[in-house]
Design a protein that fits this description.
406 residues; alpha+beta; Phosphorylase Kinase, domain 1; Aminoglycoside 3'-phosphotransferase, Chain: A, domain 2; six-stranded antiparallel β-sheet; 14 helices; disordered N terminus
Length: 406
C-alpha cells in the first residue's frame, strides 16, 4: 500500500544550482527533492483511472475527487495518526501524511525498527475484514504483499469510530511502466503468482465471505439494462451529437451483450465456478501500475482492499482489455505478450481460456464511455464514443478469431 505510484515525477533542479550549493546545502536539497518526488508520485497515483472497474466497484470505494489539503488539515491528520499509533508496540519517531482525503488516509512513519505504513481502510467493515485477513494470510504464506503488524492486543487492526486502521510494512520500490515489455511481463507473472498464492485462504470464523463467483450473468444483465435505459436519456436530447451517435449504434451492442450472456452460460463457466467454490482463489480487482512495485528484483502487490473470491480471469480481463483499448487499436503482439507472461506462472486450459475470451467480448469499454456521459454526467466528445464503437467491433473480430483457434 505504500509508495504506490503512476510514475509521475517532478523535473530535477538545474545542475548549475547544485554546483553553487555547499555540501550541506546539496544534501538538504537532495532530501527536499526526494520528498517532492514522493509527493508527486503519490499525487499521480490518485490520478490513475482504472477503466476496467465497474460502477459497483467504484461505489464500494466511494471514489470522489480528492480536495486539496490545507496545512491545517494536514496537521490535524498527522495528529490523528499520532493518537492512533500508541495502539501498536512501536517507537514512532516521525509521521508523514502520504495520502489524505475521502478515498483513503495513508501515513508513512519511521521507528527504531524500520519504516511502516498506517492506513485507514475506507470500506464497509465486513468487506474490510475479509481483505485484511486475506492479506495477512498471503504475507504469512510468503507471498510478496506487505505484512500486517498486529496491535498490542494481537489484532490486525484498530477500530476508531466507524473505520478500521491497519499498520503495514512499508515497501520501497519503483512503479512499473506499461510501455516496457519487461515491466509488463513482471506484472503479469506477479498477477499469476498472486492467484496461485491465494488458493487456500479461508476467512476466520465470523468474517463474512466476499465473493463474485457465479455473479457474472447478473452483471451482464444489469449492464445491458443500463445501456437500454440510457437510450431514453439520449432520446430526451436529440440535438446532442453524443446522443445521436449513441442511438445510431447502441442497439446492436446491447443485443451482442445478450448473446454473449448466452455464450457464457453455455460455456465451462458454471462448472468452473462450482470448482472454484470448493477451492477458491482471490482476485485483486484493482490490479495495475498503481498497486504494484518493483523492489529488490521482485514484484510486490499492494492495496488489497477490494480483493474478492472470483475466477482468476476476471483480473486478466480487467488488466488486459483497458490497456488494449488505450492503444487505439487491437495489438495482437501486446495481447499475446501479456497472456503468455501470465501463463508462464499460472497456465490456463482451453476451456478456461474460452470463458475468458467470452467475457472479454462483452462491451465493457463502450459501457464505460457511455456511463461517463449518462451516468456521471460528464462532458464526453462524440468522437470518443465513435472510437469506443470501433474498438468494440475490432476487439470482437480479434477475440472471435482467438476462440476459433482454440
Amino acid at each position: 500500500m505504500q509508495n504506490k505510484s503512476s510514475g509521475l515525477l517532478l523535473l530535477a533542479k538545474p545542475v548549475l544550482k547544485s554546483i553553487l550549493l555547499s555540501e550541506d546545502d546539496q544534501e538538504e536539497e537532495k532530501k527536499e527533492r526526494k520528498k517532492a518526488e514522493e509527493r508527486a508520485r503519490n499525487k499521480g497515483r490518485n490520478q490513475i483511472k482504472e477503466r476496467g472497474r465497474t460502477k459497483e466497484e467504484r461505489e464500494e470505494t466511494e471514489e470522489t475527487e480528492e480536495p486539496e489539503l490545507t496545512p491545517e488539515m494536514i496537521e490535524k491528520l498527522v495528529k490523528l495518526a499520532s493518537t492512533l499509533l500508541p495502539n501498536w508496540e512501536l517507537n514512532v519517531q516521525n509521521i508523514e501524511l502520504i495520502q489524505g482525503g475521502q478515498m483513503a488516509l495513508v501515513w508513512k512513519f519511521t521507528t527504531d525498527k524500520g519504516t511502516y505504513c498506517l492506513k485507514r481502510i475506507h470500506r464497509p467493515e465486513k468487506k474490510a475484514l475479509f481483505s485484511i485477513h486475506a492479506q495477512d494470510y498471503l504475507a504469512k504464506k510468503g507471498s510478496r504483499v506487505p505484512g500486517i503488524i498486529p496491535n498490542k492486543d494481537g489484532q490486525l487492526y484498530t477500530k476508531h469510530g466507524p473505520f478500521l486502521f491497519v499498520v503495514y510494512d512499508w515497501i520501497e520500490g519503483r512503479p512499473f511502466d506499461l510501455t516496457v515489455p519487461d515491466d509488463l511481463e513482471w506484472m503479469m507473472k506477479g498477477l499469476g503468482q498472486y492467484h496461485l498464492d491465494s488458493i487456500g485462504y479461508e476467512p476466520p470464523e465470523g468474517i463474512p465471505v466476499f465473493t463474485k463467483l457465479g455473479k457474472w450473468p447478473k452483471h451482464y444483465i444489469k449492464r445491458c439494462q443500463q445501456m437500454e435505459s440510457w437510450k431514453r436519456i439520449a432520446a430526451e436530447t436529440p440535438d446532442d451529437p453524443f446522443s445521436q451517435v449513441y442511438l445510431s449504434e447502441i442497439d446492436a451492442h446491447i443485443q451482442n451483450g445478450k448473446a454473449i450472456l448466452e455464450k457464457l452460460q453455455s460455456s465451462y463457466y458454471p462448472e468452473w465456478v462450482d470448482a472454484c467454490k470448493q477451492k477458491p482463489n482471490l482476485c485483486h480487482q484493482d490490479y495495475g501500475t498503481g498497486n504494484t512495485l518493483f523492489s529488490d528484483g521482485h514484484i510486490w502487490i499492494i492495496d488489497l482492499d477490494t480483493t474478492t473470491f472470483d475466477l482468476p480471469i476476471r483480473d486478466l480481463r480487467k488488466t488486459i482489455i483497458p490497456l488494449m483499448g488505450d492503444q487505439g487499436a487491437w495489438d495482437r503482439n501486446l495481447f499475446h505478450h501479456m497472456l503468455s507472461s501470465y501463463e508462464k506462472v499460472s497456465p490456463l486450459t482451453k476451456e478456461q481460456k474460452k470463458v475468458m475470451f467470452i467475457d472479454m467480448l462483452f462491451p465493457y469499454e463502450l459501457y464505460e464511455t457511455a456511463h461517463e456521459k449518462f451516468g456521471r454526467k460528464n462532458e464526453i466528445m462524440p468522437e470518443e464514443l465513435m472510437q469506443a464503437f470501433e474498438y468494440e467491433k475490432k476487439k470482437g473480430e480479434e477475440i472471435e478469431q482467438l476462440i476459433r483457434n482454440l
